[in-house]
Amino acid sequence: MNHVYTITKGRLIEKEKECNFSFALVFEENGVYFLETFLENDFYEDGDFSKWFNLEGVTEKNYLIEIKDLTFTLFKHKNKKARFVCRNFIKLTEQEKELPENGQDKEQSIFFLELEGFKTAFSDYTDIKKHRRYGEVDKFNGPNFDHTSCSMCLEMDGYEQNYFHLIFSKSINSENIQINFTENGGYGRLTYSHYLDFRNQLVGFLSFINGGQVHIRKELTGDFYRTDGSDAHIVYLYSYSKIENSNLSRYLPINEHHSYSSQIFQEAFFKCFNLYCQYDKSLELTSTVTSLNQAFTTSGIQQAYSILINALEKLCSNYQNSIEEISENLIENHIWNEEIKPSLIEILDSNKAKINSTNKNAYSIFKSKIGDINRRKNSTVEKMFDLLEFGCIPRNENVENLVNQERHNAVHNGIIGDNPRDMYINLQKLDHILRDLILNIIDYRKLRNPIYEYATKEEKTSAYPKKELKTPTLYCSEPLRRN
């Protein structure tokens, strides 16, 4: 374990009691933070291992430190030594610097985020020119693609500003990717409270375009920061085991080439993220993204298929619950009653003798069933086709087989294919349909990189026509600064 902080005084707080201490150590191992200290006599009680504690204190470098959601992992009765694991975050606040005069009453901004598990090829480069007395040197070296710059549009109730600038680059202290929100000339200033209101959706959206789960390792906020993103007035450090993401889906090829990420990032964040946040409230898109990423990293095909089919059925249920009114009729009632139903009865009447020739009750049975033909059967199959239609997935033989046969065999019989090849194809089809459902719902129209095509290009184009989307009015707070 790595020793990271020494606490010189503080207190441990639980709902019903607290404990003061004058010394504690904070360690980090594989991304998880631990606390070791000595407790006051009679503080520890039976049952404390199931309780949650918070810490407030001061480090030896005079930083305020708060640790959220500590639980016991060890307690020694002999010397009262205790060890805790942090299950949320550590908050560090620098005290020594004076706050800028114009910032003391200003709501704190989010300056940087550090992402773990996110992999991307950068689309933009920093142009550095070197000159010596006799002229430019290294002028034939190729560009160094080291960041991706894009705009983000997000309209949320309670916030007027909706236009922000994001710069993705490599973190200066690790292999992680950081997002820089500070270059906001001509854009909005994103406050920390505003960011918290869509943080979960941002993580889900990043995980989706990444093709693998993404977590936030660090948040930098407060009233001042270092321009390289290494430190700030207030820093939140999140405690969870490190993720490697060695196996990522390449359905959105952001890690393939700088030209791909250039197209994808601007489309995704300026046009699609706003829709993702809106639909996540009713459809729980982030839950579907988590299932996609879990299935992709699962080695067993049957287990992966089971995760995805459950995700599809949950998405289907969420969609049905989001619809305020569902018509019980497949065809509008006046068209059915005035045109179609009379024609069907007329055909039956004209063929009554033939129909009853082998079964004298056949005519009556058919006629009684006509009234129910236009009634919608509220089955899982119908609900699933409703979702697929909403998500602009073409209804062809491949898709109908998934809904009518493959889904049933997988859920009820545990069978997802007759042989390994069929099993793999069926898994890829289900994976791609789920990804396309989300992409179509949020109106993403750039690069996709499928392994298996479940529909022709013409079928997809017909099912997913261009939509007329209103361009939002962009509101920002920061004037464009010119050098």
Short note summarizing the structure:
The chain has helices spanning 192-196, 199-210, 258-283, 285-296, 301-322, 333-350, 352-356, 362-373, 380-390, 397-413, 420-441, 457-463; strands at residues 2-14, 17-21, 24-29, 32-38, 53-59, 63-76, 81-86, 89-94, 109-116, 124-125, 130-132, 135-137, 145-153, 163-170, 177-180, 215-225, 232-238.
Largest sheet: 6 strands, antiparallel, barrel
- Portion of residues in beta strands equals 15-25%
| Shape label | globular
Number of helices: 12
Specify Rg, calculated over alpha carbons. Answer: 29 Å
Structural class of the secondary elements?
A: alpha+beta
Query: How many strands?
Result: 17
Protein name: ApeA N-terminal domain-containing protein
Describe it.
The chain has twelve helices and 17 strands. The strands form two sheets. Strands 1-3-4-7-6-5 form a six-stranded antiparallel barrel. The mean pLDDT is 89. α2 runs parallel beside α4, α4 (285-296) packs antiparallel against α11 and α6 packs antiparallel against α8 (362-373). It has 483 residues and is α+β, with helices and mostly antiparallel strands.
